[in-house]
Every structure is written in C-alpha cells, then in structure tokens.
Amino acid sequence: MKNFIFYNPTKIVFGKGQIARLPELILKNQKIMMTAGGGSIQKNGVYDQVMRALEGYDIVEFWGFQPNPEYETCMEAIRKAKEEKVGFFLSVGGGSVLDATKFIAASLCFDGEDPWDILSKGAPVQSAVPLGCILTLPATGSESNGNAVISRRERNQKLAFSSPEVMPRFSIIDPETTVTLDARQTSNGIVDAFVHVMEQYLTYDVNTPLQDRQAEAILQTLIEVAPQVKADPKDYDARANIMWCATQALNTLIGCGVVQDWTTHMIGHELTVLFGLDHARTLAIVLPAVMRHQRVQKRDKLIQYGRRVWGIQDADPEKVIDAAIEKTIRFFESAGNPTKLSAYDIPVADCLIAAERLSGREGKIGERQDIGREEIEAILRLGA
Question: Fewer beta carbons below 10 Å: N end or C end of the chain?
C-alpha cells in the first residue's frame, strides 16, 4: 500500500427535506452568493426550498453555469462576487455548478495575475472563500472532494485542478431533488460514478484488499440500481443509492494508498472540447477501449474485476477479461450511453488531434506513465 493522507472535512447532510437545515449550516453575518445553472432548480422546487430556508439572509444570485462550466462565465461571477463583497458561496445544482463555484472561490483569493494559471500551470491554491453545496445531480463526486474541471472556449481547453481549500464545508444530498432528472442525465451520472471508481481500481495490485472491496461494492451497487431507476425514475431508494455511490466514488476514500489511472477522463475531456459530447458519454466510449488496449498491463485487475464484480467464473483468464469488457459495454449501453464514436457520427480521423493535444500538454499518462500519443491514437481507434 502506498503512503497517503486522508482528509475530508465535508459535512454530508443526507436525506429527504434536508434543505430546511441550511440555517444550521450557514452563518447569517455574511453575504451569500447562490450559484446555479440554467433554471432547473426553479422548476423542481429546490430554489423555493432554499429561499424559504434562508429567509432573512443577505443573498445575491448568479445563474447560467453550463454543463461544462466555462471560464468566461466564472470570470463574470468573480467580478460580481467582488462587487458584492461575498463571504460565502452556496452551489445549488449539479457537479458543474459546484466545479465553477470552487474555481470562483479559489480565484477570489488568488495572488497571481491570471486565475487560469490555477488550471493551466498548477498554480497553488493557498486559500479560498468558503462554500457549501446542495446537490441535485449525482455524478461528479464534487460535493465531497477538492476537485474541479473548467473549460475555456477561446483556447479550446478543458482542465482540472484540485485543492483541499475548495472542499465544501457541507453538502446537502436529498435524493428527492433528483426525481425530475431525465433519462440522459440519470444515465450520465451512473456512468460517471462508475468510471470514477474504475480509474482508481483498474490499475495494478499494491496490496490494498480493503480499498478494492470498497470499490467493488460501489460498482456492484450501481449495476444493481441502474435498472431499478430506469424502470421507475421516482424510486426514492434507487435515487438515494445512486447519489451515495456517486459521492463515495470520488470522496478520495477508495483512492487511499492505491495506484490511479485517469487516462479515460483525460481523453474524454478532449473529446468533450472537440465535439461537445457529454462528459459521461465520452467516458462510456473511452473506458472499454482503454480496457482493450491495456489488457496486458491491467490483466490481473481485469480478471479480479470480472470475477468479483460480474461473477464470471470461467477457468480461462482471457475469457474472463473478454467477458468483463463485454459486460461493461452492455451495462453502459443499457443505461443509455453508446460506447462507440460512430454512434455520434464522429470519424476516428477527426479525433486523433486529441492525442496530439493531450500528449503535448501532459506527456505520458496512465498508472505506469506509458501512454503517449501513439497509444492514445490506438485507444481512439478502438473506440471508433
């Protein structure tokens, strides 16, 4: 097991009606900026719950964050937050709103000239304006970690940063807020959470049996509840289990002491930038291709994954790997996420620039740092 530091100060407030507990979580003697997306929280009643709970608080609102939050929109929010002298941020929405809020909170305390340096140059985040979250779309795990991903359209980039300074002080997770999500949003969240686990699990063994079994439990739960929520989108228990799985998938616990990959996410980010595909849809394309391309390097974990998660007991290890990859593909597609670029009419030749961009910026990636331009191109071809 590798050395690690586990630190997670986020208070999770989980269950029905928990938005009403906001006054217990936010001090009144500060101006609050509520950040939100395109207006879904007004349609599903979440906004009204927030306003009732925070009656008498000094609140300024900022709307309009995109599903892949854009730097330009974040900068508008930063300007408004400075003008209003905001002392606390409340993100109300999905992971994209929260990612944007984290970047804004960090940027307001950033000493450098350009906040984009936090993402493009890894400039350290020394402090941030405190923030909290009301989660309405389970997927990213951002409600319980210090990660954020921001896009910059003018530069055609989608980059990430991580800092404990932007971990939410609290996150309210009420499964009832997700019952109005459409099938696409629901399936995207399931796939995103699943791949988050796989990035930390499907590498190579460093003798972490507890972390492995924790990861496998999340994967098996997602496999179990995905058809339940598809059959009945108003199934509270299915929604609750999906939300808790998504949080557990990336609250850093299962990543303690293990070797991590993140190749699928890095390639997926490039596909989102180039073609506008939903984040989770890129992951559904790339992960099976990575599994195929890296089957030798990931052999032992692929066999373990096939046997423990999918219950494949064939005596031939190679057949276990083949079946595990096929079952993963079927799972993604049954959830509603195609696993081929051709499903979106995207020729693989148009994707190869992603290999040039990614390898040029990051060098070699993967858990062994052995995936460069040539390997990324091969992975993309397998995803055609």
Answer: N
